[in-house]
Amino acid sequence: MRSLHSVSERSRRWLRVSALSLGAVIMLTSCSGTADPSARVDAGSGTGTITVWALDGQSAENEAIQKIMDDFEKSNGDITIDMQFIPADQFTTALQTASDEELPDVVEVDGPLIANFAYLNRIAPIDDWVSKDTIENQTAAIKGQNTVDGDLYAVGMMNSGLAMWGNKKLLDAAGVTMPSSAADAWTAEEFSDVLDKLAALDPDGRPFGLAENNGFSTEYGIYAFAPVLWSAGTPLIEDGRASGALDSETAVEAVETWASWRQYTDPDTDGVAFQSGRVALNWMGNWLYPAYKEALGDDLVVGPLPDFGQGAKTGSGTIAWSMGGATKNATAAGALLDYLMSDEVVNEYTSANGAPPATTTALTASALYGDGKPLAYLSAQLNSACPTEDTLKVDCVAVSRPITAGYPVVTAEFGKALSAVWGGADAAESLSAAARAIDRDFVDNDDYK
What we know:
Blueprint: H1 4-12, H2 14-28, E1 48-56, H3 59-75, E2 79-87, H4 88-97, E3 106-109, H5 114-119, E4 123-124, H6 132-137, H7 140-146, E5 147-148, E6 151-152, E7 154-155, E8 162-167, H8 168-173, H9 188-201, E9 208-209, H10 219-232, H11 249-260, E10 281-285, H12 289-296, E11 300-303, E12 314-316, E13 320-324, H13 330-340, H14 343-353, H15 360-365, H16 376-383, E14 398-400, H17 407-422, H18 427-444
Parallel strand pairs: 1-2, 1-3, 9-10, 12-14
Antiparallel strand pairs: 3-13, 4-13, 5-6, 7-13, 8-10, 8-11
Helix pairs in contact: 2-4, 17-18
């Protein structure tokens, strides 16, 4: 069993992988492969050796992944796994520059880059190679992330979600009660009033944290704060363009409101503003629950992010498992994917790292996320999935980052705009510049057709 620390590190790696990989992805997005990606895949014999690429983590987590692969081999004696761990800062380049012969049969992929990998034929649709039961057991939220143009390209063992975390002792002192459901979320105006109340009792007047130490021009920026726009009712990309969506009046007003909270925000340079009690409220994902629980105990409460007008929203999505775009043994690759999505494996994996399971059976049975369990609220958010930004509604909560092969430029430009506005730049100008840059990239790449 993995240590909690090592696996939590793995569950957070999605914040780093995309950021480290953006340059490589942007350089290579100008060339795509065959119109029918399935044509490059062969069924194979269902036996023999298959190559698996996984992200190289700490020794304990690598040992755990290796154990899962070893257990699969024991129960599937005709299949041998050639396991290769690749460092995060080399992973995307390795996948995108590999020849067809060098591509793995099964590969761990960073969720928001799936559409880009699919566009480049680095991965293949898996609908025909995994069981119907595996597909049906995937939660709607994770299927949204893993589906491109109607084809399923990956399956997920885990998911992720955001929430507002609170210190009940500090909230009670200010007469503030955390909302318990997305339907009861504070409006943006109400949240400003809450911050006023908390600031009045806070030594430095900064009772709020949103992990500014992660940086907003990183992958964290789009994951954590795209929900601001979604909650206001606007996607980042609409009908293949950012102009009119990312820079809409609705988006500008929402981002201006978000930036107005800087006066209440602890810069959190040490990353422990919430755990140490410096802030009463913290905007953060599920992966820090173990640290929060250890620090606050029964004073830890959880609720929705603010509602900017069209319902509270959260980001979702993370690392998933896919099939190499030119595998010659898709039958065996599919068998491994089915095994990785089994209750036994998913339960072991997610009970160790604290992430929400991405299968309905494991999510229901989870000791953390099941009915009546400590993080049932986060489970309810993920079960209320939009699940993509082109299907936003008031009464759905979990949304995947934009599903587009141009995602790398979307996240880079959105992050730059967020950083600029947070630093005092004009929101309309910053978002308009981001939208123009994104649309120019799309036009230059023939809209990634």
